Amino acid sequence: MLTIGKIAADVGISTNALRFYEREGLIHPVSKSDSGYRLYDDAAAVRLHFIRHAQHCGFTLLEIRELLALREQDSACCSDVRRLVVEKKLQLEAKIKAMKAMSKALDILIADCPDAGWPANECPILGAFDQVNGGQKP
Amino acid sequence: MNVELFYTEGCSRCAAAREGLKAAALEAVPDTTWREIDAIKELDYAVELGVLTLPAVAINGALVFSSLPTPAQLARELQQRLDLERPDGD
Fold first, then answer.
1. How many CA atoms lie within 13 A of B19 on its CB side?
2. Whole domain around residue B22: which residue ranges?
3. What is the bridge-based pairing of β-strands B62-65 and B56-59?
4. Is B67 inside any structural domain?
5. In sequence order, what E strands does A4-127 have?
6. Of A8, A98, B54, B58, which one is least surrounded by beta carbons within 10 A?
7. A82 → closest Cβ in B8, B47, B53
8. What pLDDT tens digit does each residue of chain A (138 aa) get?
């Protein structure tokens, strides 16, 4: 059996993160020691690694719960998991696209600012933000 | 009318629904162009249309159903669009 400190260190997360996962219902201690400390088994460590890896791929805890549920569901198959992963990729690509558009908008603002040492209230960048159409050229 | 069904390979919900939706679309608007798109193979196009969940249905290049419609819902949507396209509005 592993204490909260030991399992958190093994997985590479903080004990606070582990307690948070527990509050979110993603992980549960299998028992408590005589002195009341939470105790976890090896399966909990595997589950924590799963959660961490899925988070690194962009999944939220809610989505991770869905993935974990699929694994335990007899009627679920790999294609159900694949669909969730494809959807996650679509969502990430949409975010990347939106962020690229933001970056491009910043390029325009930077190019419009001559870096002339003007007072801030005359700065063309701040002026562009004031425009009703968001500073975008029609 | 151009209808595009975005799906992912192996999706049981997509496979089960495809034929019913296609039949409903062709019955509602016989000259419908029906295309089934693997979202991973045409990722950029899917993202351009705003597809975030699968399956999804786009009509004339715009995302209309972000979850699977029933055949009746799809037929009704196509019929409404067809009515709007008619010059006399009938």
1. 3
2. 2-85
3. antiparallel
4. yes
5. 31-32, 38-40
6. A98
7. B8
8. 899 999 999 999 999 999 999 999 999 999 998 888 899 999 999 999 999 999 999 999 999 999 999 988 888 888 889 999 999 999 999 999 999 999 999 999 999 887 778 888 888 899 888 887 655 554
CATH number where B58 lies: 3.40.30.10
Backbone angles phi, psi at A60, to 5 degrees: -80, 165
Tracing tokens 């460590």 back to the chain, one arrives at: A45
Q: Is the ipTM, as predicted for this complex, more than 0.85?
A: no
Is the residue at B90 inside a domain? no
Q: B47 in a domain, yes or no?
A: yes
Q: Total structural domains in chain B?
A: 1
A91 → chain B, closest CA residue = B52
* Amino acid occupying residue A69: A
Residue in A79, A94, A97 nearest the CB of B10: A79
Q: Is residue B33 part of a domain?
A: yes
What are the phi and psi torsion angles at A8 (to 5°)?
Answer: -65, -40
**Can you give the pTM of this predicted structure?**
0.81
In this structure, the strands spanning B33-38 and B56-59 are unpaired
Using an 8 Å CB-CB cutoff, list chain B residues near A88: none
